[in-house]
Amino acid sequence: MSRPLVRLRALAAAGAAAALVVGTAACGDDSESDADISWWHIQNNDPMLSTWEDMANEWSEDSGLSFDIQPIENQAFKDRMGTAAQSGEVPDLFQTWGGGVLAQQVEAGLVQDLTGKLDDCIDNINPIALEPYTIDGKLYGVPFDAGVVGFWYNKDLFAQAGIDAPPTTWAEFLDDVQALKDAGIAPIALAGGEPWTAHYYWAYLAMRLAGLDGLEAGAEAGDFSGEGFVKAGEMFAELVAMDPFQEGFEATSFGGPDGQSAHMGSGTTAMSLMGQWAPNSMATEAGNDGLGDALGFFPFPTVEGGPGTTTEYLGGGNGFAVGADAPEEIFDFLCYINQPEQMARGVEDGPFTTVAADPASLGVEMAPGVQMVVDAMGSATGVQLYLDQEYPPAVGGAIVEATSGLIVGELSPEEMVQMINEAWAEEA
Amino acid sequence: MGGRGVTATKTPISAPAEGRPDGRGGGKSRRRASGRPGAGTIATFITPGLALFLLFVTVPVIFAAYVGFFRWNGLGGAPTDFIGLDNFTELLHDDVFLGDLWHALLFVVMSLVLQLPLSFGLAMLLHQRFPGRTIFRLLFFMPYVLTEAVTAVLFGLIFSPSRGFADALLGAVGVDAQIGWLSDRSIVLFVVFGVLSWKFFGFHMILYLAGRQNIPDELYEAAAIDGATGWQMFRRITLPLMGPTVRITVFLSIIGVVQLFDLVYVLTDGGPFHASETMAITMYEQGFQRNRIGYASALSIAMFLISFVFALFYQRYVLKRDLAGGLTGSAASEGSRS
Question: Is B18 helix (H, G, I), strand (E, B) or coil?
Fold first, then answer.
């Protein structure tokens, strides 16, 4: 009598377990929802968090399509996006920086070709800003923010060190670093713990020494042995040897209360080589209003004997790519957020460095820091996308890693280039 | 005389230990007598667990082993670029991976020499009766309750250059040295180990405390009557009877070191320039940041093999007696034979 009962109980337990498995599997896929359009963006803080939501709601009212919006922090987004891309299930609309990562997604058939599908609004956008999202002549992403990297500096600290004008050549720059040190001021804030911040130095020196053409040729050939690349490492190493960075920079992060931004925002270091988001980040991380009138911006100096000019910038920005399975109404939404009124809201709330073809037409007053970058963009004769975004992730990662090896003295400039070349060889 | 007394106590101690497998064996034969459960029942109970294990452990391991033979960025369907053993040979020449192995070895040695003895000592102290004992037990266990990420953020602030608590503390006692806790490549590994120990010593301490409480007081009373000194009692009673607990904490420590990720990732990201990197961080960096899924899979297989081989040998040769009867009947008889 007892045995059938035991068996019944066993079956019930097994059944319950099986139900649990099925239930878990059904709940596991949270990227799928009932909404018509899934959207992952990285503006996970107000005011822009709410502004995106407002724009989505406004457009939903007209179109009748609903959104599932997931605001995700920058690094967490990269992790989640990586997993999503590998599973082949990407959101309908998602953050992209263009370049090598987008190219891999294009190759894997995960994103839609937007060429010719945004005729209602494409002219509103500065063509220079479209470049990082253009692969083999086709457009795969739409930018909403674009800017350049340059030196943000504290005018008060420069004055204290007796520097009356920002440097325009590398030699002057090194003199100013020495002058700041002599005045007891830490010249440069650097997040050595996040070496993408350091790779800007090597990238800019390579741009000045090898020129944009030299970089393009190097990437084309998958070989950075050419003139300028080792030299760029040598010159960066010279700067590092002057000990120009804040105390303990090797472990410093970009954000956080003791990060690169906070050092600038609280006025403990004189300058920082960073993109358009720097002024906003300085104020946020230092917990104050930023540097105010003391904030200045100058382009990366030229290098004697190199073909690069100060109007050639390293830069990039943020954009959106469209997933392969997205409904076609999404093009309409992309054009909605690229109308001048919506772009103006982005400038005010982002604050984004606008991609508008004619920034003045937006009719909004830009924060001084944003205005400086917009002016620089206006005068730019060429823009090179950040190297860690431009190239395939393995090569970008190697450049960042090699730069970090150079600044702690573990790699020579030659070994640095060799490491990057090995990563190129792997991609071939 | 004291020595002889202690030796005398040895027989009653080891007697129950050797008697245990027999006791278990007796129980089993009684169960057998009352009827073995049918194959159908066994299958019904085993299937859900087995299915989950196959799906979430075995299949991924096999898949990772397969992917390890390819150059693959993880996108666009199945891998196609077969490169044989290239990923594995690259691993053997990868300074970063070899550095990870070296770091793991250092962590293991430091755990065995510093962390576990410290936890053991604290457990012995906290076993004594004294006022506030519970408070101390609670306090020492608390770091283990924090998640690794929270611990890392906390110590990131403590070791922050120029304005961190660690430097301020040194300043307060008159040492005005700016120590690059996390930025100096020559000490960062030891700082990370310090944080790891702070996080995990409470866990090992609680295990030791539980092990110590399982030793019957009668043994100590008998030893005391025979005139054994405190050290003799510790050496001849406590230590041998704590053997199973010590062996299992050593096992957990080593496996923990091989898999170390969260705490180090948040605290230093393996830096500066790989100085505090672990295998799991290298794997993550290669796989998810550089999209080198093939290479990362090869690395994960290496980690798996290290853990697996170590676990097999450790269980076979070190835990043999402790696991006797716990896993299978044959192991039990093997254990009683030895």
Answer: helix
